[in-house]
Write the structure tokens for this entry.
Amino acid sequence: MTATEIIHIIGTAAFAVSGYLVGVRKRLDMLGVLIAALLTAVGGGIIRDAVIGRIPVVFVENTAWIVIGITLLLSWLFKLQKSRKRELATAFLLADSLGLVAFTITGAQVGLDLDLNIFGVVMLGFVTAVGGGIVRDVLVNDIPMILRKDFYGTVSVIIGLAMYLLDRAGWINPLMLNVLLFGGYALRLWAYRVAWALPRF
């Protein structure tokens, strides 16, 4: 199993948890929570694959569905749905931020494999990272996080740019991917902690 595949599994599990928590916060029934989790976890990848004109990976491989199933079962067994409001918000932040960074890396890697230019690499990373969250938020009648939250999408853009530049320098390897994963995660959490945001109009 490659480093990219492991990171993809991490991102899938993280986004499944974030979708699960949104469903719980919105007081959806079991089917609603399941749909929110599924769309968050696979929505971005489906949009990405549609953009590049290939059959979505989740339609031909079962890894994502297995990861999502196990993640949701564990979330239920550990009774995340019974957490207090503040605990739910913290768990959502941690899970959604991890999913954002992990899926940016895997999406950008698809762009690199296709030998796309810098815009293509950054865009595929960005779409993979935020696509599922946008679908989820629209489904539950929220303004998508990418449009209203602090230093969120910018983290994805930074990681995508780093992936492209590191690839051109010949420095993309498992160690560097892990550095990007942990570094991007730390950046996102730090930006949230200090309320770092882009200027508003």
Q: What stands out?
A: The mean pLDDT is 94. The radius of gyration is 16 Å. Residues 58 and 65 are 8 Å apart (CA to CA).
